[in-house]
Structures are given as structure tokens and as C-alpha cells.
Amino acid sequence: MIRSLAIALLGGLMLGGIIHITIIFFLPSFAADDGWARISAATSDSRFRLLPAPTAGEARFPDLDPQLAHAACRFDLSEQPVRITADLLADFWSIAVFDRRGRNIFSINDRSTEGRFLDLIVITPVQMAMVRREPPDDLDQAIVVERRIAEGFVLARALAADPTTRADIENALTAATCEQGL
Predict the structure, then answer these.
(1) How far apart are CA 62 and CA 35, in angstroms?
(2) What are the Cα distances from residue 20, in Å, to 7, 30, 144?
(3) Among 61, 127, 159, 174, whose Cα sits 20 to 30 Å from the Cα of 95?
(4) Rounded CA gap, 48 and 53, in Å?
(5) Is the pTM of this model over 0.85?
(6) Which alpha helices (DSSP H) does the chain contain, by range?
């Protein structure tokens, strides 16, 4: 009697643990207010939009650094690659590419490039195979990120620690392009 009760209790605990772990793994796919939904509400396809600066008590994007200006752009690679160009004049800038689930697939900053101008192409392997047949003339000057994703977003960040330069830095972020095609 005690043995069968102990076995049933152990089995119940193991089953409860399995159910608990399964729920934790599937919870992000059921979340309605994930990073993609927040970026979609704040941006549009193929255009950089400034994200609202975090304020005390209320932040749509709670983990943003208030010393940085942030802009985001959504993209869809189902038909064409996306080309990101930016002329960022900040002392520090960073551009990161995320897939739809919010996983960082590529990141670069001003310390990794020469100068302040960035030319970045996000492309699928199938699209890259087609581009290799007839590459555009300026492809050799671009940074090419080849990934198997359908949709994603780009997050650009630039240091705006001095309030007198913040407007110029925000203008540079919104002037950055995020266009379909090469």
C-alpha cells in the first residue's frame, strides 16, 4: 500500500514537472504582446521610425537605454532582400537584425566598420544564389547577411548623451533607409 502510494506520488510529480516545462516552452508562442507586436505597432515596413524614449513609470519598450536614440524597421524577405543604409554621426551606434521571434541574427557597431556610413543587405540563401548570377556593381561595398528567415526587424541605436545633439542623431536615424531590393 505504501509502496504503490509512493509510486503514484512520484509519477504525479514527474507528470506535473513535464507539463510545467512544456507550458514554459510553449508560452512565448501564445503571447500576444511580444516584441514583434510592439515593433509592428510602432513601425511600418521598409521605413525606420523612432521608438519612444523610455519614461519613468511607463515604457512601451522597457529595456531601452535612455541615453540612446532608437529606431526600428520591419522587413519581409519573402520576395526580395532588404538593404539598410545609414549615415550615423554619433560617437557610438549599433545596428542589430532580429528575426520575427526576437532572436538576434546579426549585430554590428561603429567599432566594426570604417567610418560612419553603413550599407547592409539581409538576404535569404535562395535570393543570394540568384544575386550571384548577376551581382550589382555596389554589392562588394555592402555587408551581406545571409539567413533563412522570412520576416524580421532592424533596431538602430545611437548614443545621444548630449541633449544638444539628440535631434541631429534622431534625424540621422530616421533618414536611414530600409528598402526592399538591391
Answers:
(1) 11
(2) 20, 15, 41
(3) 127
(4) 15
(5) no
(6) 2-30, 35-42, 125-133, 166-175
Query: How many C-beta neighbours within 10 Å does residue 165 have?
Result: 17
Question: Residue type for 127, please?
Answer: Q
128-176 pLDDT tens trace? 888 888 877 777 788 888 889 888 889 888 888 788 888 888 888 888 8
Q: Report the candidate in 89, 81, 91 with the shortest Cα–Cα distance to residue 142.
A: 81
d(CA 166, CA 111): 21
Q: HSE on the CB side for 119, CA within 13 Å?
A: 8
pLDDT digits (tens, 9 = 90+) for 49-78: 888 776 666 656 667 777 888 888 888 888
- The CATH code of the domain at 35-180 is 2.60.40
